[in-house]
Amino acid sequence: MSEYKTDIDIAREVTGEHINVIGAKLNIRKEDLVPFGHDKAKIAWNAIDRAQKNKDGKLILVTAVTPTPAGEGKTTTSVGLTDGLNKIGKQTTVCLREPSLGPCFGMKGGAAGGGYAQVIPMEDINLHFTGDFHAITSAHSLLSAMIDNHIYWGNANNIDSRKV
């Protein structure tokens, strides 16, 4: 057996904190959290408006990284950077986009980071998260069906299906 733990082994050893505890550490009011279970939340706009008044705030963007052969990329870098800054006493958090489904089908690295720089629960993050992707894909499917139907029934708006 390998002397190194797998990402999933590390993730299963950890008990996540309740989202209200995490929010309190970041000075986010409980009423400003829109929870999705016990470990995820969106933040209400009024909290974002208040945060913009903080002149000491800084923003670090991790926008492009060529992953290592082991798969460390943008998410691992972002989570590791956040952990490191918190370790030295800086109040930090990370905002990650909802990942594509590539990791679920073995097409790319896990979108939850890796090793000790990962986000849990990885299953939720990789598959459904807060439900935004489902809403987007449903809207996309509806629009596609409406355009197909419009073209089929005469295309009164002269939609060029090659350019849609």
From TrEMBL:
Pathway membership: One-carbon metabolism; tetrahydrofolate interconversion
Pfam families: FTHFS
GO BP terms, alphabetized: tetrahydrofolate interconversion
Gene Ontology terms, MF aspect: ATP binding; formate-tetrahydrofolate ligase activity
Annotated InterPro entries: Formate_THF_ligase (IPR000559), Formate_THF_ligase_CS (IPR020628), P-loop_NTPase (IPR027417)
EC number(s) on file: 6.3.4.3
Keyword Flavoprotein attributed: no
Keywords attached to this entry: ATP-binding, Ligase, Nucleotide-binding, One-carbon metabolism
Protein name (Swiss-Prot/TrEMBL): formate--tetrahydrofolate ligase
